[in-house]
Amino acid sequence: MGKIIRMGEYFRRGFLEPSGDQPSLFDWIFSTDHKRIGLLYLYSISTFFAVGVTLGLLIRLELIAPGSTIVGPDTYNALFTLHGVVMIFLFIIPGIPAAFGNILLPLQIGARDVAFPRLNLFSWWLYIIGASMALSSLLGGGGPPDTGWTFYLPFAGETATNVSLAVFAVFILGFSSILTGLNFITTIHRMRAPGMTWTRLPLFIWSLYATAWVQVLATPILGITLLLILAERILGLGLFDAARGGDPLMYQHLFWIYSHPAVYIMVLPAMGVVSEIIPVFARRPIFGYKAIVASSIGIAAAGSLVWGHHMFVSGMSDTAILVFSLLTFIVAIPSAVKVFNWVATLYGGSIRLDAPMLFALSFVLLFSIGGLSGLVLGAAATDVHVHDTHFVVAHFHYVMFGGTGFAFFGALHYWFPKIFGCMYNNRRATWGWGIMIIGFNLLYFSMMLAGLRGMPRRYYDYLLQFSQLNRLATYGSWILAVGLMLMAANLLIALRRGQCVGANPWEAATLEWTVASPPPTENFAQLPQVSHGPYDFKKAGKP
Amino acid sequence: MPDDTRHTGAMRQLIATWGLLLCLTAATVGISRIDLGAGNIWAALGIATGKAALVIFFFMHLKEEGRVIKISLLVALATLATFIGLTFFDVLYR
Amino acid sequence: MNTSAQHHDAEGARLGMWLFLLSELLLFGGLFVLFAVYLQRYPDQFIAGGKQLSLAFGAGNTALLLTSSLTVALALEALRRNRYRLCQWLLGSTIGAALWFLVNKGLEWHAKFEHDLYPGSVTLRQAPPGHDTFFGLYYLTTGLHGLHVIIGGVILAWVLCLVRQGRITGTSPTILENSALYWHLVDVIWIFIFPLYYLLL
Fold this sequence. Notes:
- Chain B: This is Cytochrome c oxidase, coo3-type, subunit IV.
- The complex is a heterotrimer of chains A (543), B (94) and C (201).
- Chain B is mostly helical and 94 residues long.
- Helices cover 73% and strands 0% of the residues of chain B.
- Chain B has one domain.
- Chain B has helices spanning 10-32, 39-59, 67-91.
- Chain B starts with 9 loop residues before the first helix and ends with a helix.
- Helix content of chain C is 81%, strand content 0%.
- Chain C has helices spanning 10-41, 43-52, 55-80, 84-114, 122-126, 131-164, 174-198.
């Protein structure tokens, strides 16, 4: 009897509180609680995001005027390489799935943890080891890598910079990503609460599911590609050396076979977040649930067929250009299905413009701009004109930062009261959002225009005619940074002094809102019996 | 929990599979010594696929698994085939 | 640690293992993509390269791996019938086969090195394009496969210890099940490596 009472007390505590008499740091970094691991990811990912932002601001500062402004060409090469590696592999790819996915996946399907809790902890450790190695490639040895985040051979095989270390770091990060993916797939298949049928899964879970498949099936190709780089650097096999019968284009094929699907690893979970936020703040069930599910699977599948559009001017065959261009346009269909369904959900809803909703709506806008500019790049003829210009850079920042980045912030504002049990100041959050939107568009729209006029990417110097747009873009980067800092400060203040809110401040209908905030260890005292869909707001607050 | 009756004869089945695998190995070596032109590589791949299927279905017990694992394997193989196939749109027509 | 969240789900554990194996399949898949492309480009050089490989070592190692696949499958069967001695003996033979495979591989590579056929060797650098590519892929593929043999062997040795200690039993066979699956995958990959590299004509 005494044991039962003790267990009850253990259960009532939130996962944020220390759970033993060990020092509390060890309580965290060796915890197998999915929420703690998710928070570890959230903190580490946010830290690396700050590093990436700093590198990005330095790139923009260098480009404020033609000529060498603050750094020379070699340092500039290192800056954009590390900015790419940090942002792609340390922030965007793990961002939403590893941080929010870990915290919310078991909560949303009514489970007590993921299928393999210790493997989950191991994934985080791999992530931290890989991240530390990637960052340490900045220091010592031959200097920071200067290949760009794509590590194209043959250059990556020859440069004396710390490419091997960075490549090995990314290999470890990829391993971490695969393990998270297989953990999530198994969890979704095996651990749904009674009554949580496939059509009652929240759309965020569906997006994680589609993402996890891409993680499991595409990431190994990155793994072997990175091993090939290492083999070239260490053994000099010459597999991609044209003089010895190799084909440099095959490196690009292998690299993009992963790295294009990786774009969908980055954006699908973001779409899932938006699909959660919009119905809650429009007080309407999502329009076309099954179409959105199908489009998630469709994007994951079709997204694996289009890597060749990164290689239109690389010397690939014309037939391949035609095929890949056509396939690229097919991805637009499931993406558009999502956008239309979100808009249709808004139609006739009673819309509440709190911070999460503002971020979700700006996702729809910025993602659409990014997606449509992607069609310009997917069409081979126009791609030849804008290839390797700032147009491309602006395009993928609209998709990745405007899309996934803003959805990440949206997720942060939406689930903040659930994770920490307290609320931030909505006015300040709105101001932060507004400043970021202005800065973001000033920054990247200027770059898009400069690119259309011929400003090449990855150059530390440029012709006088691009001065004005570059200056505007740099001003935009400062405004964006101010907005980011305001947002961060607002959330940090909320952590210390935020007001307590109940279990369900947004009156949402998914399962995570039926437990206390912060959720107790083990999530559910008794596994819930699910009796309604995720957007059935009349039954909000009940399982 | 597997019950004993289900596993009666299981060992014999595994050994038979192994015998078949060794025969197929001998066959693939034999066929490779006959000149079939481009047919050689396809024969070799065909036999290899057959051997892999034996290992996967009997040694790895895929035949006793549910739909999820079977479909997953098909998806993975289709994905790999697609990667190779689409690459050849470039390689064959360059 | 014995919380209900970690209660045992054998089917889930197998699903997780299969997904991991699928990712391994795709890892080697990248090398098969390269092989297919370069075979298409340099059919003559690849055939010439294949003829320089030792059929005896290739076929012998194939038979070894197939047999070790059988012994590990039988070990699982023995465990399920609680015949622990037999299970340990079969696991021991599997590990023995793994070691034998590696010794063969070492001898084979050594012979190649003697003939000046290794990455960056003078003979290969002076050979016509395509020759170099064949041996580059050969070393990379068999090397990566050999690494998997080593990992598989170590895992099976650990499993053997667990069976000895009675921590893997007929009622809790999951660790042996999943390790056996891994070992079979190493076999499946070799089933494709063998004809592609050793039997080209």
